[in-house]
């Protein structure tokens, strides 16, 4: 019996540990989910806002059945805080826009995957077959998104949207016919731009420290390739890879200072983010070596857990900048802040934008989504002004955005956010190469970083 | 013939018949979602049973068993997705990969016991996970492997469900033969006292390797069934939590029985996938369930049910003065 109790203890500890180090796309582990967990797991959006009383147009054909949208996010486990942001963003959109579009009602249900592909595959069956979802809005983990895309690829009655899961190959070398990344991004799309910016701003010798898994490889590779092809140097021996979920990064940080680089490209996720910044300031490096951060590392969901003085002034690149001074961004930021008391992370902006794409597509299709191929084409043809800024989709279903060089600034209320210091317009996932040229090369990995210096 | 059996045996027989009957009829009763869940639960149950063969019968609790089933699943996934091989080759490579992992792990672990066995197997599971996120040419790293279709004969969900049902019931029967054989009895001896077994002349090291290989075989089968069910494999299948869930399923249902792990698997799969639709705090619910079972039903749900049944059977007997002593013979109840 004692042994069994020991095993239970170990198992529970293991699951907690596994949940905390859950991979990909940055999880903010310290934000309490309690504040937002009051909403139940499944919500039917039947609330229509006053004021947005959009009357059914006479020309609209109307719908026999509501248009149903299924949302799958991790609402429990280590990614619960990020998943809850995503859920809140999606719900917030429909709380502020009419669910009556072109004579049709939009309904949605949010389901919890726990970040587990097995569960996500069961839930998506349930949503498609029993709930009758015509649109699935996907998960934030790369592997769950791949699992869902593979399950849905032969289903011609469903559109699969992935506003968060950012694995490069989903819209590059391993595309799925009914998959669209409206509101989303590819991992290397934003770090390409940072590579160019770093070179343009006089950095010539950069070291890197990225998390050792697919997302880290893609972020780091995007920076390394563009930066070295522009003329900069990233020595392969100065690219450090720390294991996923590691929380004592002191040894890596001392190695970095030994390289004496002009700057360091950093991509950390989850609990490693605050540990990195803690070490970076403890070793007194903040004033000596500038950091160029990957998007998720500087996302508000991560930096709001870090002492202000450790991140103030941090440079990063991203498709999302909550401090961007534009009405379409600030309107959303204020709504989200008022509703949840948090500044919105890119997870929230992404699902809001996905909802916006759904709304506009239904309007453009006049409520008739029966032809999913036509609906997909319509969605790809939309030109929207989203909280991210102007958004159009390329032939592969990935957005072409303005990518921002961002800097962390302290707001008047003491919270930190990312403001825009430079903008690169109309950046697609292949920039600065053409699609044909870019797709010749393999996807970024630890072995292939696209390093022009070899 | 039926009359010659005891009431308990007849009830067990009846339940087994009802279970198989329900299993066969299920696709006519339930929709696709529920059938998918039952398939998943059957596979998880087989996995938990193979853990229980090690943990419950031989006293060798493993926290790395998903490494074995996951290696088999990756074998299939690699051949289907990257090598583009036929189904025979896929399954053959899956088996070979799973059994090779079981052999290597068995040889590594066979000289340890108790907590040390747990730590060795834990490390083995972590090695497989570490490789799965690093060897991206074989495993697709974090993205996993997609594009693993089922063989055409079992392509539809209900066809695959029947295949799963048949394979799991067959494996269950095989496991029953193993645990009721002299070898199975010697495993219980190993659990109770390895020193005494060695004194009696048993080669306990060899015994551990054999039982690891047998358990590895059933884990391999469950891994291959799982990868075709999902059409997908990623590091989530081989993380520590996947191994731990298997152990918890066995403990929840009743360790040292074969029906227990299956019941535990059904409960956990349904809480994860169905209860979570209605209860957003379902992990709390599951945690509470574990605590209640460990506190009040030490031998799992099956143990609690069989205790209750025995109490009911003997309700009219003269009260026995002393409490039944927990010995090795009554610690393992059920089939």
Q: Describe it for me?
A:
The complex is a heterodimer of chains A (454) and B (335). In chain A, 37% of the residues lie in helices and 18% in strands. In chain A, the strands form two sheets. In chain A, strands 7, 8, 9, 10, 11, 12, 13, 14 and 15 form a nine-stranded mixed beta sheet that branches. In chain A, strand 9, helix 8 and strand 10 (291-293) form a beta-alpha-beta unit. Chain A has helices at 2-20, 80-96, 117-131, 142-152, 187-200, 214-230, 250-259, 271-282, 300-303, 308-311, 327-340, 346-364, 372-381, 435-438, and strands spanning 67-73, 100-101, 104-112, 135-137, 159-161, 179-180, 206-211, 239-242, 263-267, 291-293, 315-318, 384-386, 389-393, 399-410, 416-427. Chain A is α/β, with parallel strands linked by helices and 454 residues long. Chain A folds into two domains: 42-161 and 345-386, Rossmann fold; 188-323 and 402-438, Rossmann fold (3-Layer(aba) Sandwich), CATH 3.40.50. With 335 residues, chain B is mostly helical. Chain B has a domain at 31-240. Chain B contains 15 helices and no strands. The longest helix of chain B is centred in the middle third of the chain and has 27 residues, at 204-230. Chain B is globular, with a radius of gyration of 20 Å. Chains A and B meet through helix 1, helix 3, helix 4 and helix 6 of A and helix 2, helix 5, helix 11, helix 12 and helix 13 of B.
Q: Topology of this protein?
A:
The complex is a heterodimer of chains A (454) and B (335).
Chain A: H1 2-20, E1 67-73, H2 80-96, E2 100-101, E3 104-112, H3 117-131, E4 135-137, H4 142-152, E5 159-161, E6 179-180, H5 187-200, E7 206-211, H6 214-230, E8 239-242, H7 250-259, E9 263-267, H8 271-282, E10 291-293, H9 300-303, H10 308-311, E11 315-318, H11 327-340, H12 346-364, H13 372-381, E12 384-386, E13 389-393, E14 399-410, E15 416-427, H14 435-438
Parallel strand pairs in A: 1-3, 1-4, 4-5, 5-6, 7-8, 7-9, 9-10, 10-11
Antiparallel strand pairs in A: 2-3, 11-14, 12-13, 13-14, 14-15
Chain B: H1 7-29, H2 32-57, H3 65-82, H4 87-109, H5 114-134, H6 136-139, H7 157-180, H8 182-192, H9 194-199, H10 204-230, H11 240-253, H12 259-278, H13 282-296, H14 300-313, H15 328-331
């Amino acid at each position: 019996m004692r042994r069994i109790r020991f095993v239970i203890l170990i198992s529970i500890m293991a699951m907690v540990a596994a949940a905390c180090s859950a991979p990909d796309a940055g999880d903010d582990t310290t934000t309490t989910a309690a504040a937002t967990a009051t909403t139940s797991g499944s919500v039917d959006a039947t609330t229509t806002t006053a004021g947005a009383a959009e009357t059914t147009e006479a020309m609209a054909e109307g719908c026999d059945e509501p248009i149903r949208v299924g949302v799958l996010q991790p609402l429990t486990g280590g990614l619960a805080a990020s998943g809850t942001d995503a859920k809140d963003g999606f719900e917030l959109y429909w709380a502020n826009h009419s669910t009556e579009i072109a004579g049709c009602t939009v309904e949605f249900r949010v389901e919890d995957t726990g970040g587990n592909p097995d569960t996500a595959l069961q839930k998506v069956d349930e949503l498609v077959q029993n709930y009758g979802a015509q649109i699935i809005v996907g998960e934030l983990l790369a592997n769950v998104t791949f699992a869902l895309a593979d399950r849905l690829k032969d289903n011609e009655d469903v559109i699969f949207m992935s506003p968060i899961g950012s694995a490069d190959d989903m819209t590059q070398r391993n595309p799925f016919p009914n998959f669209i990344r409206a509101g989303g991004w590819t991992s290397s799309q934003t770090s390409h731009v940072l590579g160019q910016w770093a070179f343009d701003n006089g950095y010539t010798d950069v070291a890197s420290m990225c998390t050792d898994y697919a997302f880290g490889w893609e972020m780091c590779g995007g920076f390394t390739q563009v930066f070295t092809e522009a003329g900069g140097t990233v020595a392969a021996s100065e690219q450090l890879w720390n294991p996923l979920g590691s929380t004592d990064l002191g040894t890596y940080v001392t190695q970095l200072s030994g390289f004496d680089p002009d700057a360091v490209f950093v991509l950390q996720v989850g609990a490693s983010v605050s540990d990195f910044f803690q070490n970076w300031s403890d070793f007194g490096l903040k004033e000596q070596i500038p950091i160029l951060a990957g998007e998720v590392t500087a996302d508000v969901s991560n930096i709001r857990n870090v002492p202000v003085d450790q991140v103030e002034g941090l440079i990063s690149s991203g498709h999302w900048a909550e401090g961007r001074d534009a009405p379409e961004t600030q309107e959303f930021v204020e709504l989200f802040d008022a509703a949840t008391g948090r500044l919105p992370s890119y997870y929230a902006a992404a699902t809001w934008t996905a909802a916006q794409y759904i709304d506009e597509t239904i309007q453009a299709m006049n409520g008739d989504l029966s032809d999913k191929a036509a609906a997909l084409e319509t969605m790809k043809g939309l030109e929207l002004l989203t909280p991210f800024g102007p958004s159009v989709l390329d032939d592969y279903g990935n957005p072409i955005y303005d990518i921002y060089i961002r800097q962390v600034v302290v707001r008047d209320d003491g919270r930190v956010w990312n403001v825009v210091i430079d903008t690169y317009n109309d950046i697609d996932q292949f920039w600065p190469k053409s699609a044909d040229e870019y797709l010749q090369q393999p996807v970024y990995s630890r072995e292939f970083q696209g390093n022009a210096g070899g | 013939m039926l009359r010659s059996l005891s009431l308990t045996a007849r009830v067990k027989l009846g339940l087994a018949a009802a279970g198989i009957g329900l299993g066969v009829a299920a696709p006519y009763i339930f929709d696709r979602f529920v059938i998918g869940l039952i398939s998943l639960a059957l596979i998880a149950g087989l996995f938990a049973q193979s853990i229980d063969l090690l943990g419950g019968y031989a006293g060798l609790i493993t926290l790395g068993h998903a490494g074995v089933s996951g290696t088999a699943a990756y074998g299939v996934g690699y051949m289907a997705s990257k090598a583009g091989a036929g189904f025979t080759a896929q399954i053959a490579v899956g088996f070979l990969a799973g059994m090779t992992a079981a052999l290597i792990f068995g040889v590594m672990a066979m000289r340890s016991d108790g907590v040390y066995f747990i730590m060795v197997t834990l490390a083995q599971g972590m090695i497989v996970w570490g490789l799965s996120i690093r060897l991206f040419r074989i495993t697709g790293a974090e993205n996993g492997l997609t594009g693993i279709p089922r063989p055409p004969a079992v392509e539809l969900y209900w066809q695959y469900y029947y295949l799963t049902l048949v394979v799991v019931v067959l494996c269950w029967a095989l496991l029953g033969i193993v645990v009721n054989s002299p070898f199975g009895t010697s495993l219980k001896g190993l659990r109770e006292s390895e020193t005494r077994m060695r004194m009696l002349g048993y080669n306990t090291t060899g015994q551990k390797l054999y039982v690891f290989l047998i358990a590895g075989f059933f884990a391999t089968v469950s891994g291959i069934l799982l990868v075709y069910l999902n059409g997908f494999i990623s590091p989530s299948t081989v993380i520590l939590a996947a191994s731990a869930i298997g152990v918890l399923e066995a403990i929840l249902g009743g360790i040292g029985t074969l029906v227990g792990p299956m019941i535990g698997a059904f409960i956990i799969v349904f809480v994860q996938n169905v209860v979570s639709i209605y209860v957003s705090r379902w992990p709390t619910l599951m945690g509470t369930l574990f605590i209640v079972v460990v506190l009040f039903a030490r031998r799992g749900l099956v143990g609690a049910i069989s205790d209750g049944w025995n109490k009911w059977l003997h309700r009219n007997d003269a009260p026995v003065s002393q409490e039944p002593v927990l010995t090795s013979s009554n610690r393992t109840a059920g089939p």
